[in-house]
Amino acid sequence: MNPITELDPRYSAPGATATPWAEARDGLALAETFWLSTVRPGGGPHVTPLLAVWHDGTLCFCTGVAEQKARNLEADPRCALTTGGGSLTQGLDLVVEGVARRVTDPARLRTLADAWEAKYGPEWRFEVRDGAFHSHEGGAAAVFAVAPVRAYGFRKGDYSQTRWTFEPAG
């Protein structure tokens, strides 16, 4: 996955360079928390924090099947995931825009469950059955994967804004 990389000079310091996708991808893999933005059935925004793992070119997250974000994605799968630090002068904030696709394949779910546990520890261990994650508390969680359509990087300190545009899958 090699996106088109563009620096937006309007929002970048003189002499700034575009952030390489590999650096952004590593930032997505290492980030612990994300904010998911979805669209409510009435058209309003819904934003909520969650955990996610970067796997096989997609950003993956899970949510209870009855939660608002799951209901929103069922009606409109377009979404954005954001992550970054709260510092004004250092770090790289990242935004991934795409379409959330439900993951139900048992083999992929097992791989993702292992990735969750590896990243977040044994308290985030999930069982896989019936096309979903199941916690030790018994709740079912739908798993979604978002392949980037567009992504943005906002570097602080030397201030640069990078846009990555991805070719459609298939």
From TrEMBL:
SUPFAM superfamilies: FMN-binding split barrel
Residue ranges occupied by any Pyridoxamine 5'-phosphate oxidase N-terminal domain in the UniProt entry: 22-149
Keyword annotations from UniProtKB, A to Z: Oxidoreductase
One Pfam family recorded for the sequence: PNPOx_N
InterPro entries recorded: F420H2_bilvrd_red/Heme_oxyg (IPR052019), Pyridox_Oxase_N (IPR011576), Split_barrel_FMN-bd (IPR012349)
Highest taxon, organism lineage: Bacteria
Alphabetized PANTHER family for the sequence: HEME OXYGENASE HI_0854-RELATED, PYRIDOXAMINE 5'-PHOSPHATE OXIDASE-RELATED FMN-BINDING
Protein name in the entry: Pyridoxamine 5'-phosphate oxidase family protein
Organism of derivation: Nonomuraea indica
